[in-house]
Amino acid sequence: MRIEVTFNCDKGAKIDFNYNHNLSRLIMESLFDNKSAMFHKGKPFKYYTFSQLYFSHYEISGDKIVNLGEEVHWYVSSPNPFFIDGLVKGLTKMGCYPMGQGEFEFKQVRILDDPEFTNDMEFTCMSPITISSMGRGAKRELYCRIENKCFVENLRYDLVQKYYYLYNSFPKNERLEIIFDKNYLENKKRTSRLIDYNGVKVLGYMVPFVVKGSPDLIRVGYSCGFGERNNNGFGMVKVWHRS
């Protein structure tokens, strides 16, 4: 289930580049009084993802985004309808939320239809995809580089684990092939993103890709996010219609 949230924002308001943790906090505060939406199987529910912010008009000033339009759009996705319902109710009740040097005023929400999930689809990123690999003897997470084999392998494994957590079984078909757009990688100046999430540096990539294989795993990636740290605003994708 996916929603588009629209906020009003004052012209001239300045937002930090690294705003992911602010949006994570917005979700938590919206759900504070709705425990059924915050927990699953007795544990905190983390199977959701959200996009970067989409400004109708903006400019960059130093390390800030300066809003020049009136509306800001934001997308949230989860396979749990109770989570989405609780979030919408919380946002409506909250009304306004401070964001950087400005304030977001909740305006409206729109429920988006899911695409038809097939065994061959093409996506583009709405927030960076990140995946890690604990190296032998490593004391901290090592983020996989998109050019390394572990990047795709770990994305597939992560989707299988998400499916098992959500449905208490493994998918009948675990095959999945992910092919990132080589032309985009070669011609785009910057495809990587180093996000500062409340003091933690997270490496991710925003590159269109084709995915082939299990529609069930593709659906999980679309609804929960591809890769890790989805509930921190990583791994959201949308169907890409190549021009």
Automatic annotation (TrEMBL):
InterPro entries referenced in this protein's UniProt entry, alphabetically: Cas_Cas6_C, CRISPR-assoc_prot_Cas6, CRISPR-assoc_prot_Cas6_N_sf
NCBIfam families reported for this sequence: cas_cas6 (TIGR01877)
Q: Which GO terms describe its biological process?
A: defense response to virus
Species for this entry: Anaerobranca californiensis DSM 14826
Q: Where is the CRISPR associated protein Cas6 C-terminal domain?
A: 113-239
Q: Which UniProt keywords apply?
A: Antiviral defense, RNA-binding
Which family would the database say this protein is a member of?
Answer: Belongs to the CRISPR-associated protein Cas6/Cse3/CasE family.
Q: State any single GO MF term.
A: RNA binding
Q: Where is this site: Transition state stabilizer?
A: K46
Q: What is this protein called?
A: CRISPR-associated endoribonuclease
Source domain of life:
Bacteria
